[in-house]
Amino acid sequence: FFDRIDAAPADPILGLNEAFKKDTRANKTNLGVGVYQNNEGKTVILDCVKEAEKILLEREETKSYLPITGLPEFGRMARELIFGKDSEFVDGGKAISCHCPGGTGALRIGADFIHQQNVASTIWISDPTWANHYQIATSAGLKFERYPYYDRANHNLAFDRMIETLSQAKEGDVVLLHACCHNPTGIDPTHEQWEIIAKFLAEKKLLPFIDFAYQGFGHGIEEDAYGVRTIAKYNPEFLIASSFSKNFGLYSERSGVLTVVSADVETAVKVMSQVKIAVRTAISNPPAHGEKIVTTVLSDPTLRAKWEDELKSMRERIAKMRVLLSHKLKDAGAGDFDFITEQNGMFSFSGLDKDQIEALKRDFGIYAVASGRICVAGINTNNIDDIVKAITAVVKK
Ligand code: PLP
Ligand code: TYF
Q1: ipTM for the whole complex
Q2: Pocket test for ligand 1, best of 246, 344, 371 (most atoms within 8 A of CB)
Q3: Which of 26, 97, 109, 376 is a Cys-bridge partner for 75, taking CB atoms 3.0 to 4.6 Å apart?
Q4: Can you give the pTM of this predicted structure?
């Protein structure tokens, strides 16, 4: 049966992680995978999460199945983060939420729902993007088209080309947008550009699908929701895939949420019933531990304050590394890398080409994605001078 199966290529990012683990050099550096590391290069469990786990250990009484869409208070808390505490979408009934395994699960269940219910057949995805987007769309049975996003010459958003290309989309097509901290470029639309995008999608009757994997890693929990909330102002119906992998450091707990907003409550109830079918046929019901952690933290004022503090310190450490990196590169004569300080979140498109990235790995044990994407969260005060030396060497070659 299986002898005709070809070996699949390794995931370009997770495969890099495997290669990094195998590298025996003592001073190797991982700027590949998008996982936060502290100044000691460790991906630690947040204190608020540890405390919530202690509470759960004491109080949790059952491991019986969760409801298909997860616990209702979990979805409600996710909507508060997405839309803001006072939004009509928190309790009004037009927005329904469903716990999915990670942001990936939310993207997939959303795409399955779109395909199974013939909502649309084509989804427009930014070029470049997180590579899994294309595969998720295809696996769910959707066709994808790409819209330009990155202006290489100016290290900026190719906004005019993006809108121009999306003008070719036909009514009813889906448009996938990154809410903030665009992966891989780190470049997000400005407030003015979000306004234009949101109105444009509404006028063209395109269906927004927003990937919200990094809330709190850009400018703040509320600030990072600007794009989503602007889309919500003009578009009666849309989907959001949010993730608690990064902002709670819950990567392996697979905690994410699909939220679908419908034009009216009656429609939302019908949508929910179909989303449930999509969940049932894919995973039956979600894993509980991650969502119980999130719910415990967000419902306890002390733990919530601690979470906000811990998230802030992750965000601020990354921002500090951006500034330090660009200054040190300038001082070393590597050129002008100031654009790195304008980018948001874990990632930067460094502008380094494939050969330069290869040389970083071969000659210096520094691992980054071939596209030139570096994970700024992997930089710290102990390794930054070596990174600067290495980048300077490869750009001057
Ligand atoms: N969307 C984007 C843009 C991402 O970078 C990631 C990262 O892993 C995800 C979705 C998936 O997140 P999760 O690990 O929660 O599935
Ligand atoms: O882009 C990243 O590095 C993160 C982590 O198949 C990731 O989003 C990368 C690849 C992948 C799953 C997660």
Answers
A1: 0.97
A2: 246
A3: 97
A4: 0.96
